[in-house]
Amino acid sequence: MGNPKHIIYRISGMGADQRLFSGIESIKGYEFVDLEWQEFPNIKTLNDYAVEIAEQIDTSKPFSLLGVSMGGMVCSELTDILNPEKVVIISSAKTSKELPAQLNQLKFMSVTGMLNNGVIRFFLENSSHFFGEMNKNQRKLFYEMIESTSINFIVWSIKAILNWDKKTADSKIIHIHGDNDFVIPIYNLSPTITIKKGDHMMVWNKSELINQQLKEIFR
Questions:
Q1: pLDDT by residue (tens digit) across 43-66?
Q2: What is the CATH number of domain 6-217?
Q3: What is the pTM for the complete model shown?
Q4: Per-domain boundaries in the chain
């Protein structure tokens, strides 16, 4: 028998699932395993979530992590708990200091107390242009993923991001970010790789460039 494939555990963005990676091509010698979002009772923070999801990662074999947006934040937390060979985050943040200042303002305004099913649903149903460029099929898929996501999980996710308090990040994290990302603007970041005209949905709309970078990283 040959050597087992190196597993890349992938975590999508908030409200998304493995379909977010539909444009990502396979990489020779590697196997993708998607860690779907779950609702865990009695947890509050992204670190709590990382502790729970770490149980699903087989650390007896070589593995790496790949996360988009909120999934990248969880990957940053997982890197402190486990010992992945490589970590790649896309359209994300390594620490809470890299999140836009507007989020801190929302936190101090106690905006989470105003969240309810109606407010969240209205925003999500009218938010695709906020996240970035999508073609007709991608926009349809975007809303299909949102419709299949629990509102309770969305509320938890927003609270967890607003209250994220991670000050440092492991130096092994490779951060791919677009210079036109409106959700997590690049001005607070120090990405490893910058994608010109890349927005928050560049894992879809610039998948060719993302694939080139991933194949170089995981060669």
A1: 999 999 999 999 999 999 999 999
A2: 3.40.50.1820
A3: 0.90
A4: 6-217
